[in-house]
From TrEMBL:
Name the record gives this protein: Serotonin N-acetyltransferase
Family: Belongs to the acetyltransferase family. AANAT subfamily.
CDD domains assigned to the protein according to its UniProt record, in alphabetical order: NAT_SF
Compartments reported by the entry: Cytoplasm
InterPro entries hit by this protein: Acyl_CoA_acyltransferase, GNAT_dom, SNAT-like
GO CC terms, sorted: cytoplasm
């Protein structure tokens, strides 16, 4: 059995009952809300959300389309998408890293033997912003990481104005990041992934 099939918080979450037909019989509908790992087939939807979210703010995307496909082929188990009635509304993409801090190489590499999860990007579709979806998705992602036996820490880099958001999600600032993109500078943040045994006993992992 795969790790993914044993994780209760990645299974579909039904937020409302299936609709009924006029004759009183239920007809099939897509799950109202579903969390699952992404696949390469989701890459275009991911990029469309990311492009709209980041280009207007920073002028560039953390991941370009070919990079999204790259990570979703190499490590789809380190991604998480939130779908509403089959439509992607928010996502996280991560990869593994094998050093204490992020370097420029971390932007494009996946280190299969690493114990650090590098969170490349979290983005929410513009229609669904200001609803707390980013915080909820990050919480679920961190719960998921606690069920992965190799994961010890999560690292990410963000601009100054996003530091309070990630602090509310439980991350702590490590200081300036070594990585730069053009003229942009970043703060590096970390979240310990703790309680592996406890989580496995109590969440079905």
């Amino acid at each position: 059995m795969s790790v993914l099939s044993t994780l209760p918080f990645l299974k579909p979450v039904h937020l409302r009952s299936p609709r009924s037909s006029p004759g009183g019989q239920r007809r099939h509908t897509l799950p109202a809300s579903e969390f699952r790992c992404l696949s390469p087939e989701d890459a275009i939807s991911v990029f469309e959300i990311e492009r709209e979210a980041f280009i207007s703010v920073s002028g560039d995307c953390p991941l370009h389309l070919d990079e999204i496909r790259h990570f979703l082929n190499l490590c789809p188990e380190l991604s998480l998408g939130w779908f509403e009635e089959g439509r992607l509304v928010a996502f996280i993409i991560g990869s593994l890293w094998d050093q204490d801090r992020l370097t420029q190489e971390a932007l494009t590499l996946h280190r299969p033997r690493g114990t650090v999860v590098h969170i490349h990007v979290l983005a929410v579709h513009r229609t669904f912003r200001q609803q707390g979806k980013g915080s909820i998705l990050m919480w679920r992602y961190l719960q998921y990481l606690r069920c992965l036996p190799f994961a010890r820490r999560a690292l990410l880099m963000c601009e100054d104005f996003l530091v309070p958001f990630y602090q509310k999600c439980g991350f702590e600032a490590l200081g300036p990041c070594q990585v730069t993109v053009g003229d942009l500078a970043f703060i590096e943040m970390q979240h310990p992934v703790r309680g592996h045994a406890f989580m496995r006993r109590n969440s079905g992992c």
